[in-house]
């Protein structure tokens, strides 16, 4: 938000994504990169997270800036190409074709979900399906909308906080 929404009354998380007590929330961001002046880099390093998957809006602004910044700090960066739109299709095509390969890599959300599913099988983690496809593994919560919610997808790093399936409760309607 680059300081745009400093007043908590100006922003609210949608119900299923509201931070839980004790859950990490990025704070302090002051530029286009989510890393600049925020608490994200120390959090990632303290939790030994070396690979970042980026998705969100807008690819040619905040995602690209974060990708470049993370690369310069030594992280492996992957942009989820079909979950990172730009203002225009041409801007998105340009970044995907001419920028990303200098600072990281890209993959589709289906490819990312495939990787996480393989990891989940390797770790014998639980895979939950309830309207959305949900994968809870020790490092990520991956979600992808089914035919009822095709545009809803993402990945949330958990840094190992959900190692026991009994600790995970998905709010309705998930």
Structure description:
This protein is α/β, with parallel strands linked by helices and 174 residues long. The protein contains five helices and seven strands; from the N terminus they run H-E-H-E-H-H-E-H-E-E-E-E. The chain has a four-stranded antiparallel β-sheet with strand order 4-5-6-7, with helices on one face. The longest helix is centred in the middle third of the chain and has 15 residues. The two termini are 27 Å apart. The C terminus is likely disordered.
Please give the count of helices: 5
User: Termini, distance in Å?
Assistant: 27 Å
How does the major sheet shape up?
4 strands, antiparallel
Morphology call: globular
Percent strand: 15-25%
Over all CA atoms, what is the radius of gyration?
Answer: 16 Å
Give me the strand/helix succession.
HEHEHHEHEEEE
Mean pLDDT: 74
Structural class: alpha/beta
- Number-wise, the strands total 7
Unreliable spans are 125-140, 144-152, 158-174
What descriptors fit this protein?
alpha/beta, single chain, 4-stranded antiparallel beta sheet, 3-stranded parallel beta sheet, 174 residues
């Amino acid at each position: 938000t680059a300081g745009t929404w400093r007043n908590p009354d100006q922003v609210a998380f949608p119900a299923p994504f509201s931070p839980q007590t004790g859950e990490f929330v990025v704070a302090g961001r002051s530029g286009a990169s989510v890393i600049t002046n925020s608490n994200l880099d120390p959090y990632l390093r303290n939790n030994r997270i070396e690979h970042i998957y980026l998705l969100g809006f807008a690819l040619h602004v905040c995602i690209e800036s974060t990708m470049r910044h993370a690369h310069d700090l030594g992280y492996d960066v992957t942009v989820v190409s079909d979950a990172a739109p730009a203002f225009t299709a041409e801007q998105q095509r340009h970044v995907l074709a001419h920028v990303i390969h200098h600072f990281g890599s890209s993959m589709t959300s289906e490819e990312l979900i495939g990787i996480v599913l393989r990891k989940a099988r390797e770790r014998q983690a639980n895979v939950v399906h309830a309207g959305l496809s949900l994968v809870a593994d020790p490092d990520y919560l991956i979600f992808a909308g089914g035919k009822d919610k095709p545009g809803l997808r993402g990945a949330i790093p958990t840094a190992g906080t959900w190692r026991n399936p009994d600790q995970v409760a998905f709010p309705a309607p998930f």
